[in-house]
Design a protein that fits this description.
eight-stranded mixed sheet; about 300 residues; 13 helices; alpha/beta; about 15% strand; globular
Length: about 300
């Protein structure tokens, strides 16, 4: 069994069984963009369950495929909660409590790994550092999938907060973070810094690194153009999954209305985003809007019962 298959086997045995009772997914709606709605379950401790699942995903968020398999086979950690505590303290930079985007990033990572079962890490983003030693800015998620010779880069953004903040934040990200120069700068940086990822990612990083080196003396615009031309030649496309996880307690007030309430949330997001056109010079990505209303955002962020339980 190869490394990638072993990693997926571990993920499926540890995360899949519990996620099915905690996260609910609904049929996506393809319009101008692709809208994919989710919800959590409606148990009295639904937020606590979701947060525990997110923490259990920390090992898979903070470590590459090779690292996960090695630690798992050696029995390094007693359980995934212990792995989460270690990863939080040793793999992540110190973040300000009020502006920490980690819960949203981990939730986006969780959703992608659950529902895109053939996704591989392009890099282990949580441990990447900029030249000033601060945490890397840019995309909150960097994965790829390969099917029948076609490569899809998954470059995601996550917002967790109030609904208006999530909508405006994702809107701004789509305007600012997917210009060709920004895209090429991020890809050149990420692909030069692989740690413990699968051999499947090597082919893509080799392609991108060759362009990075060959165009080193050119200006940013020409380097970006060269990379996009390379994507076309190698049948590489881009998906942009954008998570909006926000408090909407009313969705969970009546179980019999849950499905309709989720539909209403999706329609609201459609009205907002279809008013906008996002232009991407040199490439045409698929924008996928992950819509995830939450029952209690304050509880999710709580140190005692929420996501940070046992971490801080």
């Amino acid at each position: 069994m190869g490394l990638a298959e072993e990693y997926k086997k571990i993920y499926e045995s540890e995360i899949f069984p519990i996620s099915k009772g905690i996260i609910l997914t609904y049929s996506p709606l393809a319009n101008k963009y692709l809208f994919q709605p989710y919800s959590h379950n409606i148990d009295t401790d639904c937020i606590e369950q979701l947060c525990a699942l997110m923490r259990q995903n920390m090992l898979f968020y903070c470590y590459g495929e090779e690292e996960v398999v090695t630690h798992y086979q050696k029995g390094t950690f007693a359980d995934l909660e212990q792995a989460a505590q270690f990863a939080y303290k040793n793999r992540l930079p110190e973040r300000h409590a009020k502006s920490d985007g980690l819960p949203g990033e981990v939730l986006l990572d969780l959703l992608l790994q659950i529902y895109e079962k053939d996704a591989f890490k392009l890099a282990v983003r949580p441990i990447l550092r900029q030249n000033d030693d601060n945490e890397i800015k840019g995309y909150d998620l960097t994965y790829f999938t390969m099917h029948n010779g076609k490569i899809v880069l998954w470059l995601g953004q996550a917002k967790l907060g109030q609904k208006a903040y999530c909508k405006s934040g994702i809107h701004s990200d789509l305007l600012e973070k997917f210009k060709k120069e920004y895209l090429s700068g991020q890809m050149f940086f990420v692909c030069d810094k692989q740690v413990g990822v699968s051999k499947e990612s090597q082919m893509i990083t080799d392609i991108i690194n060759k362009i990075n080196i060959a165009t080193l003396k050119e200006n940013d615009a020409d380097r970006a153009t060269a990379l996009l031309e390379c994507f076309i030649t190698n049948n590489i496309t881009i998906n942009i999954p954008c998570l909006m996880a926000y408090e909407e307690n009313d969705v969970y007030c009546d179980v019999s209305c849950l499905y309709q309430k989720i539909e209403n949330q999706m329609e609201d997001m459609q009205r907002y985003f279809t008013k906008h056109t996002y232009s991407f010079e040199g490439f045409s990505p698929q924008i996928i809007l992950y819509i995830f209303p939450l029952k209690d955002l304050e509880k999710l962020r709580d140190n005692k019962v929420g996501f940070y339980h046992g971490l801080r």
